[in-house]
Amino acid sequence: MEFLTAVSLAWQGIVANKLRSLLTMLGVIIGVASVISLVAIGAGTNEQVTQRIQSLGSNLLTVQVFGRGSTTYLDYEEAMRIKELQHVSAVAPTMSGSATVKYGNKSQDTTIEATNADYSIARNVGVQAGRFL
Q: Is the pTM of this model over 0.85?
């Protein structure tokens, strides 16, 4: 069968069965759109998870102290001795709490986190505007 004959027969079939042809085209279009959407959602989710993991730092180690008898914390000097270990580039001890901040007649509940200058290195974060205190 020649190519032109095959194309002619295909065209006649499409014209003769318009509803069937429309439904077939609709199925193909919906299928392709679904695959494209799922691939895009998967790629976006993968990128978001990768960014969150990288923001934590690929070599971040968090130490929490529990059950040291009557002392359940490290003092600052003990924490800073960890920096003397090999392959440790930054130590950022933190203490968190909450407070109400007031300015004029406005007040806002907020979280306060006290740390040192190594925090930005250890957590791979920066200040959007201004500077660290």
A: no
